[in-house]
Specification:
The complex is a heterodimer of chains A (152) and B (172).
Chain A (H helix, E strand, L loop, with lengths): L3 H8 L6 H8 L4 H10 L2 H14 L5 H8 L4 H7 L8 H12 L4 H12 L5 H9 L4 H18 L1
Helix pairs in contact in A: 2-4, 3-4, 3-5, 4-6, 5-6, 5-7, 6-8, 7-8, 8-9, 8-10, 9-10
Chain B lengths: L6 E9 L8 H13 L3 E10 L7 E3 L10 H7 L10 E5 L2 E3 L4 E2 L8 E4 L7 H9 L29 H11 L2
Parallel strand pairs in B: 1-2, 1-4, 3-5, 4-7
Antiparallel strand pairs in B: 6-7
Helix pairs in contact in B: 1-3
The chains are: A mainly alpha (152), B alpha/beta (172).
Chain lengths: 152, 172
Amino acid sequence: MPTLEDIRRELGADEPDYPALADKLGTDALPPLEELVAEGDPRIASSAAYLAGVIASGSCDRVVLLALDSDHAVVRVAAAATLTTLHSAAATRVAKKLQSDRDVGVRAWAVRYGAASWVLAKRVRAKAANDPEPAIRELAARLFDDAVTSAR
Amino acid sequence: MTNGSSATVRLHVKVLSEPTAVTRDTMVAEMTTIYGKVGIDVVVASTERLDLPVLNDLYVGACAMGSTTPAQDELSGHRNHASPHEICIYFVRSTFMPLSGCGAFPADKPGAVVASYASPWTLGHECGHVLGLSHVEPPHRLMAGAGTSYLPNPPPMLTQTEANTMIASLNH
């Protein structure tokens, strides 16, 4: 099993190969990924949070919750990657937190993932329509209109 | 072009977010030094700020040349002042998936994105991709696949073979 330092170096590459890393490391990587998110370096923490989502295990909840509480918006954005892999109850809680984030970019990613999820779509759409940021309202209108069009 | 140089890279800088790990000036200075050693000048031809909050954490998909996302296509449409063959560099807050940068661009709109946590050499690395270079194994090279954050002996280098590829791309 690679060490914490091995994983840190892999995630520190300019362009990590996340699917290959997920295949190579598997769910055994979740505890070190949690440590890397906790350390707080925005570059490594965001990569660690994202990789946890790619590993796609229900037990990545701890990593996600840590990422959602990060002071760095880029880490909270990366947590959005887990929305498609979490169990629906957990995904709903995470989406709710992301959509209430103070940062526009984080909220934008909650809308993007919400638009792609039948579990989250209705709730995400309703909240995004009332977002104070015009760019979020426009993004939601575009994404949800596209979803309706493709479903026809 | 300066004496002895074979080609010039003209960059048009578009800033959605300022980098936080190192300054833009540092990244440009490092790129200028590395490229200069192989006969390529670097010029920042223009700088512009863009207010695009929903593109600031840019979805880049697999960051694959020839296969850009709608978000990359939308961002790449912002090319004020740039001629078709000149490179636009978009400084964003992050990419999704998290990368230090991505050198994939839509056809006929050469450009790259650099994330806020990029290394001093990410700009030069991503421009290398735009000019036709692929990743290499040796860790002391600018185009090292392992990335520019753990260089054994910075600054990294370009080979003359790589430079020839880049010069041919610039002079095309």
